[in-house]
DNA sequence: ATTAATTACGTAATCAGTTACGCAAATATA
DNA sequence: TATATTTGCGTAACTGATTACGTAATTAAT
């Protein structure tokens, strides 16, 4: 089980928490050292009020990055100590405008020395370290703002999954999976049609022998996606992309994208210049995928499928 | 009140907390992404067990840096899920030995991919930043281990206070404070003696005119500490350090140290080679101070004070 | 062999935050 | 003008941690 030993950096969350605790734990005693009767958790609110004089509960919450009930509670505690005073906003009766009381302003005077010393202590630690914590936090905040950890992990997962997916040529043993995967989604959203059965029951005769191709996507050896390139006897298009199906088991693994990409490559290698496809706008993820791949909406082509309500083409560059 | 604007770095605690929150908040969803039924708070325990196979509650608590009740609760939750199993230690009936169950081991297999991806995501963030958070945390942990934030702040306070303290020569207007500060501590711990009154009621005649000195420490203009150097008619010692008194108001401000240091300098500038003093072991802070200044215990000198149970001397280098 | 101190650990109470919810005031919309 | 939506904020319930405390087992000291 020593696999875990190599995955150290996932512990960054824990390490951050522990450091936060260590930095924070002395706070109460530091106030005592300066004879200031204040709870550490009040400080951000206090600080915000000292800077801005007047603020409503919600403004304070936003300023210090807490929820408003948290601020509400803190204010009621500080009120009991007489450090702040409340007053209703004249023009907006919902707002509770909070400001430091005379006693609060006195405390803010007393606290100055403490802030100077704490600041000096932190600067000392910074000066003694090679790596700048303050700046590093800033960078992490920025980077996580740009893209959350969840999103980054999702990308990494997709990347790694892609490596596990192999796209291979159709073989007769895949006829069953080719059929079942397609039947699954077609009958989920629509009903199977005559033309479907022709292609799915006899891919060899109906697709391959006519100059088309079928590709299969395998994930860890298991076939979980299929896609066909049907030769078209048409002056305009070389192939039709059809019978694309991915198992629900493989959802979110990028199988559709890899499969479609491979089939386009195949068409390109065969000298095709234009690919056609038919779909239905109910199938939003599919439409998005086609769009991402460069397909553009076209109209006017006759189709044997009743479920077709959108037609698209891709000009191969 | 824009003073506060300049004291930015005290906010390091808040910034750390917020970053911790941000890094942590996606955790639950990341588990969901991999279809792993686990609460984020279980992970450290899980991880520790995956590395070491068997551990008691207390060992786990130490390993993950939580309190033991916290681990106790987590284990009982994981037990309900069937991820761990408990068993009493045979040789020590108090110990609750915990290990992963079969189901737990299965989860640990499933979780590997997730760890790889999370790790990759964190490495990506690290690679995109100039400042190294991971290393910076390590340095801070080390530095705070060496000396806590509280201790550092205390030092800064002392430094700053020292600057505010001035040591000046005795003037007649300080006779009252010289008397009252000494009476205060003497009568708190002992009773005033004949010799005390002589010196305190008439410092001019009893100390200064005989070739002695008195120094006064002022904190923000207010006299809060006194110390005398009494000329001795003795073949061995030049002066006696006596009547040192610091107001309780100035406790913790290093006044005693500065005062004693100044009086030793005074003696040195007068060509003294040995200073003597008398005290009582009840007065621990005072004895510590004398020790810190280099005074050594001696014995055998006759003394007029009944409260004296320790005698010390300093050889001036 | 008692007695005292220490250790392991579970339960209870507490704490500092959160989310959920509901009321009232203000604002937007029909 | 009536009605719906949004906003401000307080209360309540929950969460993940803590400290405090009690009990039982072990170890040390007399």
TrEMBL record, chains A, B:
Keyword Transmembrane listed: no
Pfam families linked to this entry: Acetyltransf_1 (PF00583), MarR_2 (PF12802)
Start and end residues of each HTH marR-type domain: 9-159
Lineage of producing organism: Bacteria, Pseudomonadati, Bacteroidota, Sphingobacteriia, Sphingobacteriales
Keywords: Acyltransferase, DNA-binding, Transcription, Transcription regulation, Transferase
Domain N-acetyltransferase: 176-317
Protein name: GNAT family N-acetyltransferase
Any GO MF annotation of the entry: DNA binding
Provenance organism: Pedobacter kyonggii
CDD domains xref list: HTH_ARSR, NAT_SF
PROSITE patterns in the record: GNAT, HTH_MARR_1, HTH_MARR_2
